[in-house]
Amino acid sequence: EAGVAQSPRYKIIEKRQSVAFWCNPISGHATLYWYQQILGQGPKLLIQFQNNGVVDDSQLPKDRFSAERLKGVDSTLKIQPAKLEDSAVYLCASSLGTLSGNTIYFGEGSWLTVV
Amino acid sequence: GQQLNQSPQSMFIQEGEDVSMNCTSSSIFNTWLWYKQDPGEGPVLLIALYKAGELTSNGRLTAQFGITRKDSFLNISASIPSDVGIYFCAGQPTGSNRKLIWGLGTSLAVNP
Questions:
Q1: Which of A5, A88, B80, B95 gets the highest tally of CB atoms within 10 A of its CB?
Q2: Is residue B11 within 8 Å of B21, Cβ to Cβ?
Q3: Band of the pLDDT at B99, cuts 50, 70, 90?
Q4: How far does the CA of residue A78 sit from the closest CA of chain B (Å)?
Q5: Do A56 and B99 touch (CB under 8 A)?
Q6: Is A96 on the interface with B (CB under 8 A)?
Q7: Do A106 and B100 touch (CB under 8 A)?
């Protein structure tokens, strides 16, 4: 079974530029998550989708971050304009989204450096 | 946001030794998950626990869901160099709409 796919793996941009990350979840997984992981910390949930609807975006900095999952499958996360403190790994994850299938599986991450 | 108390923060052990780490919470959880993260990679699920008292093994790894539902531990037996990495616990509080709460990680180093 294919895992969660993310691209690009690595991105270096200057502050105030924009960047977009793409994620394709495990086939059949209704729930998709975007996490931000700063070096030395655990993952922090940015946004959670159930199919194409947003379940939780309480920790998403909406002035600069946006995410969409238009067809309920793959998703994009955009940062515009980027700040130095946005340097982190952006992890996409997915789960079945059922009460008994809520184990979350992660992609390899997209590593962002803002200079 | 809320975080789990994960300990120890780091460990440096000799190859062949057993390892134990744990996570505690002030609230009741209905799911405990243990992940390992290698440098440059995303977290990989090791063990998932769904019932209080549940004891589950995955090769040399064993994890338990505490009876009080407020803690969990992970044991690694006979450690090997490839066990090096950061181990995260994550839990799902009751009524949390599936939002996971994460520990800060235990960094494990194994001396061959």
A1: A88
A2: yes
A3: confident
A4: 19
A5: yes
A6: no
A7: no
